[in-house]
Protein 1
Amino acid sequence: MASKAKTIFLADDDPEDQEILKDAILKQAPSVNIHSVMNGQQAIDYLINCPDDDLPSLLIFDYKMPIFNAVEILERIADVPQLQTIPKVVWSTSNQADHAKRCMDMGAALYFVKPTKTEELDNIARQMLDLGKD
């Protein structure tokens, strides 16, 4: 029986940013499924209600989103047992050190500033995929 394709969860309120990151990830891992939502409430609802068999192998959050930002999402999912071992990544237009620190303190494994160059994006996607490996 074929193994199930990995799923990456992406929460970002900017459709263009979603598309460029999806493209970069799929260029390196074409068999990955990417489930995306547009705001923090949708992220929390999906993750808390996701069946264990469908849990993503990696969670990616934009820092600043409507309803809940990445820190607030990380706070709300911190005590959900099935989500505790899934690597979490935050990416943002903000390069403020306190934003990165708050995310890391709340359980994010990595924090990236959204890049302006394709090569940088490819490198970020590679690091994200490496983090999501079993």
Protein 2
Amino acid sequence: MHAVRRFMKVAILRADWLTAGRARAYCEIFGLFGWATFLLMLLLPWWKTGWNAQPRFGDFISFWAASDQVLNGHVVAVYNTTKHHIAELAAFPKMSFGNFAFFYPPTFLLTCTPLALLPYGVSASLWLGTASVAYVSALRRILPWRWALIPILAFPGFVIDFTNGQNGLLTAALLGWSMMLMRQRPFVAGLCLGCLVIKPQLLVAAPVILLCTRQWRTIAGGIVSGGGLIVASWIAFGTVAWSGFFRMGHSARVTFEMGYVSFWKMQSVFTAVRLLHGNVSLAYVLQTTTTVFVFFLVGWLSWRMNLKNGNGSFAGDCAPEIALMIAALPFCTPFLLDYDLACLAFPMAWLFIQGRSTEWLPGEKIILFLAYIYLLGARLFGMATLVCPTPFIASALLLAIARRMAPAECAHAISGFKYAIRERSIFVRKRQVSVSGEKA
């Protein structure tokens, strides 16, 4: 037992073995593996069927086909899964990846509209290149050291989104820049957050945190940009696009609930329950319970920080409440895929800055290590074991940030937990002694 306790203390809580040199080496190894996998996925299918037979960057074909439909005057057809798939096949007649439906609101359709003005390959490269620059530059503002570029580019969330041709880097960049700008330019930070109406499920926790911290200028910026995008999409496409989007809600819900998008690709509490063969009702109950609990937690932490004016007690210029909001995202929506979690790099970077500037708290190093590497194998792990690791690892990251924001309260809670465990072990030992005495 003593050896187990020592192992927990040295290897897990203190993680003395995880030095800066080893951490960089692990980043290089995982980055090399991730980008090698990306190149293999990019080249292997087209080596068999021809370079132009299959769309590169998978999901991007849905965005490009939607743009093509809009530019040809078929806005309503974007929200018809059959007609949208026909548009995809028109670009790649031999496509064998299945139907990539367009489940996004017209605000995102407005963003996608120019894409089909360019050939598919050029458009995809510009889309991913622009989003990557915005994402990396935001992280470089938090981690300005030269050596930090390797962990940023090797982060599995970055690699996965790039491989899938998705919008996770764009939404993560908006979240990251709002975290960077909240202190100096709160209205501009709000403009960044408001732009997330292109993927509104990522904004679920924002009202709770912004209201609890009384960030009125940020809220105003969000209303301006979010409302502006909604109005602009209505002017551009009319009511037919919005009515088509809402009509498609049932189809999207069935696709999600029945696992037509494989559950092992998704990373929410809902899909963790469905992977374990729980029914839809149980999955919704657990998802809702978790979401409400997380709302109370982040709301209380944000209110407490605002009450004590604790913004100046943290290292760096980032807004800790936005780091908290991003860390809470895996619990706030049932519809969450692994490429959406590229945004977790920002709360991880914030936690790293706190540990590097002051001292590492017990468990922080190993939490950052696991949060960094697990996305690379999350799909395979879920497919092989029917267990989704995201709720467990994301909860550890969220609680680590909560401990930084409320150290005294968390210390009392940890002490109480330790006391309860100690009392329980004493009770068990006394019970064993009494039972053995009765037998004797």
Protein 3
Amino acid sequence: MFDKVKDLYKLKQQATALQKELGQTIIEAISPDDLIKVEISADLKIQSVFIDPSYLIESRKEQLEFQLKNVLTSAIVQAQQVAANKMKEMGGLDNLLGGLGM
């Protein structure tokens, strides 16, 4: 019984450490034309968005929307990959839960 409580406590500590590390890991995604830049943390929180002023005209609205969607998608995919790799470094979810008999 107490071993499972210790395992739960260890799991909570590892999860807290992972969450902190993910929050401090910043990924940058940039459009092919270098006019849009997004920074996102590995815990999927947008940190900053830069849009070159040349995009801020009505005639480029559709292009801006398209590029922004692509850059955000790229940033999210990269952040998810970083999070997955960090989880693997910790032994993966199976290893974390293995001691709990799950």
